[in-house]
Design brief:
Helix content is 47%, strand content 11%. The protein has 28 helices and 19 strands. It binds ligand L6W4SP4V. The site of ligand L6W4SP4V has 29 residues, from strand 5, helix 3, helix 10 and helix 11.
Amino acid sequence: MARYTRIAGSIALITLKNPPVNALSAAVRQGITDSVGRALSDPEVEAVVLCGEDGKFCGGADIKEFARPMTGPGLVPMIDAIEAGEKPVVAAIEGVALGGGLELALACHYRIAHYKARLGLPEVTLGLIPAAGGTQRLPRLIGVPAALDLITTGRHVSAHEALKLGIVDRVTDRNTLELAVEFAKSVSGQPLAPRRLSTRQPSCPTDLDSFLEGAMLRVRQRARGAIAPVACVQAVRAAATLPFSQGMEQEKELMASLFTSAQARAMQYCFFSQRTVGRWSMPSGARWDNSKAQPIHKAAVIGLGTMGRGIAVSLVQAGIPVVAVEMETKQLEVAKHAVTSILEREAQKRGKEPKLGLIHFSIDLQDLREVDLVIEAVFEDMALKKQVFRELSSVCRPNAFLCTNTSSLDVNQLAAATRMPELVVGMHFFAPAHVMKLLEVVYGPRSSPVAVATAMQLGKRLGKVSVAVGNCHGFVGNRMLMPYMEQSVFLLEEGATPEQVDQALEEFGFPMGVFRVSDLSGLDVGWKVRKGLGLTGPGVAPGESARIRQGRRYCPLPDLLCKQGRLGQKTGKGWYLYDKPGGRVAKSDPWLHNFLEEYRSQHGLQAHPVSQQEVLERCLYSLINEGFRILEDGIAAGPEDIDTIYVFGYGWPPHRGGPMFHAGAVGLPTVLEKLEHYSQAHPDIPQLQPSSLLRRLVTAGSPPIHKWREVVKTVHSQL
Ligand SMILES: CC(C)(COP(=O)(O)OP(=O)(O)OC[C@H]1O[C@@H](n2cnc3c(N)ncnc32)[C@H](O)[C@@H]1OP(=O)(O)O)[C@@H](O)C(=O)NCCC(=O)NCCSC(=O)C[C@@H](O)CCCCCCCCCCCCC(=O)O
């Protein structure tokens, strides 16, 4: 809907009304169309101001409508009518002007923004392009390079950046609406032709072709296989080379090819999943809307290795005072220097002052007496962590929340080392913690709803996408990663090379294949975990076969590389070869290929050609199968939680929705059939045996993903 009022005598005020973000639903488009018509035909109206109710201009087209047949007036004719009108229209932008919301503002003749407003064309993140003239008007307003950047990344800009770029005419810290009304009066009667963006020529770089080719190359590299960024570049090329009306035609055609695409469906599913995970629930019935978070005025981080430093930076950047603790002065000094430089660098990027005064470095645990929450980030060692938790429990206030940044250890055991186990939760950050968006909030059987609510709320404050998950080895993300990684090394035993496996995964859309990731993070990380699990090292029973552990197939290849000192990039060699320790460019390594051949012959293994399809099916379906087990076990509340974790923490390509969405897109019967096939071929790999939830879903007729929770509920109710 839109409300029409007359103010200040001659100004028509049109207010978009569609909470919470004034999305351009059919009713809103109808309201705007009617109100603009009324304003243009009323002789007493000299100018129009367009604004959004409740301090939000407009969040764009109504994404929920995309899945339904379109009704109501089209966005493009509505926007065109505003620009073509003979009375000046001023957009008063508060809150957000995103997507169709910004396109609406671009059709207005003037734009005034509150200094806290954010603007952008994020359609690419929904698998679309800004197809209400955004790809054609923005380049005509701010030039091709700047427009291309905003359109292909979908990034939001602040009002101040928008002013610098020339997107808005004024930025104010006053009442935006009042200023817009004054402004509208002041421009009434002035010629409108120069203000109509459709009539302007875009400013282009002199070497337009090579500029656009470079841009195309970059978007293809950034999101392999994603079609929307490519369409964005094509649409901007049309703006740069064609008259406006032809550019609009091209924009429409490109949008039509994306609108019903599987990629757009996947990315819009990601958008809504991200919001769904905020409405978390625990098996106990505790939920986001019945559990109250406690305020965190001061926090602490213990252990200032890579993770601890990133967590401390995140807290400071969110404006939370932090006590950062190391055990010894020398380590503390090194960490202090590192944290300070990150804070300075990040602040410089944002054009702000670093909030160095918010962080206090200490080696004294007594400094934790006043904090509301501690995040322990010491070495991943249960005995050490238990010791830290015992000390925290005696030093901190009795109601302080104690969180562990572990990637797989049992949160419950740590809770048991404290006096108040209900205040203990896991906060699994991802490296680098001040950059990565994902946070797994891990609740143990004794974690209180308040502790979970507080950690979830804190995650939000830190700008993270927080997902509440149950306690098990590896939680959700790393637990699913294990069968995926195992398949990848089994494939090497069977004849594949790291290059083949990585290529298949990268063509699927992962930024890096499993072996490149392993080289980057260090092979010793997994080695340590496997030692802890008794799969390698002194814990292995004497006489146990090298390729069998705990009755199942085991591949010792990663352990053998570690024993040879091939730990990945940091040692200059791992699955690939690097020009020096710390080198980044992976080269195929003939030594590794020989080593694989020798290994196979030593173990009597026959190499066979491994197809790209087999790589994808074995790696991805075993990961997905574990996802179904996680749902069955109640470790994740729904498939959206798993998919959000994978998209934000594990490089799963958003245009494929997430592993569980992908299973639905491929077809659950197909996934089941393939798993059955591979588990028959490899009976010694239990992870390939289809989970009972997958079987149930198929038996239930493979319902759409939003109905899976109902099937999971019936499984739980029968347990
Ligand atoms: C706006 C935000 C930044 C606010 O963030 P905040 O954290 O405050 O709040 P939430 O994110 O939690 O959101 C609250 C609530 O609101 C819902 N919501 C938000 N935005 C929208 C929206 N745009 N539509 C619907 N609902 C929205 C959100 O889901 C929450 O509700 P929930 O119940 O889920 O908790 C933030 O929300 C945000 O970033 N929003 C998205 C902004 C965005 O991406 N905007 C762009 C939208 S797409 C668009 O605008 C497209 C236009 O360019 C062009 C449209 C042209 C259409 C032409 C169609 C031609 C098709 C031709 C094809 C023919 C094919 C054929 O049939 O042959």
